[in-house]
């Protein structure tokens, strides 16, 4: 089973490398993975960093550098269009994969459920967990989405 990590990026070389490290450091999983990066015409050396990763690590990296900045929405779609996997896991280039995430994902996929619901852990740029995030998803009370911030409520609902 192939999992495609779809990553749109623009001038986030350092964060993107942290994400790639977090994927590379996963243990105890038996899934095939590929990394699909759509670069929105970065000028920070992202392409050169990707070349180093392509030559030194064990997973395939599909990388496309757009000749012009497509904007975030089109770049998001462009990253998914690179994927060949059975599943796409979409990441922001400033995200990181938590320890054992692929082993946990494999357990869920092996269960052959009809639907998978996922959440996220909110962290700051230093990857330290934010204990009281501004919104909480999939709470166990009567509401599906509970927002602690009125602006979020207006935007999302």
UniProtKB/TrEMBL annotation:
The Glycosyltransferase 2-like domain, residue ranges: 4-137
Keyword Oxidoreductase annotated: no
Highest taxon listed in the record's lineage: Bacteria
Keyword entries, A-Z: Transferase
One of the Pfam families matching this protein, by short name: Glycos_transf_2
GO molecular function: hexosyltransferase activity
SUPFAM superfamilies: Nucleotide-diphospho-sugar transferases
The keyword Transferase appears for this protein: yes
Protein name, entry field: Abequosyltransferase RfbV
Organism the protein comes from: Salmonella typhimurium
Lineage, top ranks: Bacteria, Pseudomonadati, Pseudomonadota, Gammaproteobacteria, Enterobacterales
């Amino acid at each position: 089973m192939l999992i495609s990590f779809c990553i749109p990026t623009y001038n986030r070389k350092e964060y993107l490398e942290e994400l790639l490290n977090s994927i590379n450091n996963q243990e105890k999983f038996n899934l095939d993975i590929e990394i699909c990066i759509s670069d929105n015409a970065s000028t920070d050396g992202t392409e050169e960093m990707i070349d180093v990763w392509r030559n030194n690590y064990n997973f395939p990296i599909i990388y496309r550098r757009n000749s012009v900045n497509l904007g975030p929405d089109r770049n998001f779609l462009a990253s998914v269009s690179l994927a060949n996997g059975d599943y796409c896991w979409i990441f922001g280039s400033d995200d990181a994969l938590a320890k054992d995430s692929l082993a946990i994902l494999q357990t869920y996929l092996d269960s052959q459920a009809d639907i998978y619901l996922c959440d996220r852990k909110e962290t700051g740029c230093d990857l330290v967990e934010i204990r009281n995030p501004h919104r909480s998803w999939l709470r166990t009370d009567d509401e599906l989405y509970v927002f602690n911030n009125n602006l979020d409520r207006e935007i999302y609902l």
